[in-house]
Amino acid sequence: MHWWQTGIIYQIYPRSFQDSNADGVGDLNGIIRRLDYLKSLNIDAVWISPIFPSPMHDFGYDVADYCDIHPLFGTLADFDRLLAEAHARGLKIILDLVPNHTSWDHPWFVESRSSRDNPKRDYYLWRDPAPGDGPPETRLPNNWQTHFGGDAWTYDAHTGQFYMHQFHRSQPELNYRHPEVLPAMLDNMRFWLDRGVDGFRVDVIWLMLKDEQFRDEPPNPHAAPDARPFDRIEHIYTASVEGIHDIIRQMRGVLDEYDERMMVGEIYLPVEQLVTYYGDGDECHMPFNFQLIQLPWDARVIGDYIRRYEGALPPDGWPNWVLGNHDQHRIATRVGQAQARVAQMLLLTLRGTPTSYYGDEIGMEDVPIPFEQCMDPAALQQPELFELWGRDPERTPMQWDDSPNAGFTVPEATPWLPLAADYRTRNVAAQENDPASMLNLYRALAALRRAEPALNRGDYEEVDLGQPDLLAYRRTWPGSDGFLVILNFGSVEHRLDLRAVLNESGGEVALSTNPERIHGDDIDAFHVAPKEGVVWRSNGR
Ligand code: GLC
Fold first, then answer.
1. Is the pLDDT of residue 212 over 70?
2. Are 353 and 318 in contact (CB under 8 A)?
3. Catalytic one of 44, 198, 203, 360
4. What pTM was computed for the model?
5. Centre of ligand 1 from the C-alpha of residue 502, in Å
6. CA–CA separation, 420 vs 396, rounded Å?
7. Local confidence band at 504 (pLDDT 50, 70, 90 cut-offs)
């Protein structure tokens, strides 16, 4: 087994984790200061969202230099120190690689847009205006749309052509059909691998290749009548385009030049297509599985999905699960505080690598941010979808303590996004000393997972307890204790006869999400409280 299989990944959104220089934005020295905290969570790897030079139109997902550190976050020397200090504590560091697009400030794009005959012109996707009447800037090359809302083409008056972008106009997309582009990106990967990073989370990896003929995308027959233009077409020429797997294999080849490095691909696709990104064990080590974010919080729906996902995985495809990230509303807001505990128990007891989002371990919630204070380009571009789409609410500063600015930055500074109204009560310091806190539940679950082979590598078997609001499963590993996990997604108490399920083997409750659990361990009348999750340890099996 590899570290990225048995371990837990923890995502840091670096602007919001810990500021060390009083500018209201988190930085690398801030992360270094919090490494002991990270270690105390019993996580194994830290994925840091982009920290590279960038004009920050998409907060770092618009990279202007792949081989340096943005001064806001620190220097290369700070990064080397972070890596050394993390490694000294047994923590791995995963960087965010954004190969699909660069910033419009990247020297390649500056050259590319300078003239039609610049040698780097075709590093990007340039097209003439469509034939017809009317000003050239209105004659779009095709009907492609951006994920952030709006046409995927921006007209450049200087050279009289459009360039293509599926996100913000400041994020022009690279042309992976140009023979120099992929080798250059592979060298960017080597730059960090040589420094010692343990892997990459690869941004929108399934979008990296586009249709060679730039054909219009067909109408989506399933679109709702009021769907936004992006959802009214089927993305068959901008996503999962033939040839993409070959690009990913070459990226994997670079990782395989080193020991024990990994890549996890950001891919939003239905499960049957998602699993093709494992390749024959020669593509992504893991394509992110986002279904716990996308599915309704319903025991049957999630149970069905686990079965479908487990069934779809290729023979050596290692599963993974994600509860939240910097693009999605926080789990505690989606399902409430009590179910957020159940969700952590689910995440940390399923078969496959868990990815946690910073702050979810203390139950941080989305912070409502008025449109006037909105920072996120995806929301600014679609004001009518601001509530639904705005990503600022899940990116607010980490709540460390009850001091002004929550210990995220000094009291005199202004954090780049507002703090949660409840930070004086919901923070790390308050939860440290409370045995019943979400933080201590997270630590206990992560510690149990680390200690128990059944949980960190064992088999998964679903268990039907005959109650639609209970999700139950068994985790086993030969020669080790087995575990029965029972999660109550509902609001009524259950009294269960577990004798048939547990086969009379001895055991006890190892953990409950309910700190006040008073019920004993009677297996013929086993109580599961409303919104409670329980991990039962079966001795020796
Ligand atoms: C990914 C990132 C998101 C970013 C987009 C464009 O989806 O997670 O934050 O805006 O790609 O890079």
1. yes
2. yes
3. 203
4. 0.98
5. 45
6. 7
7. low
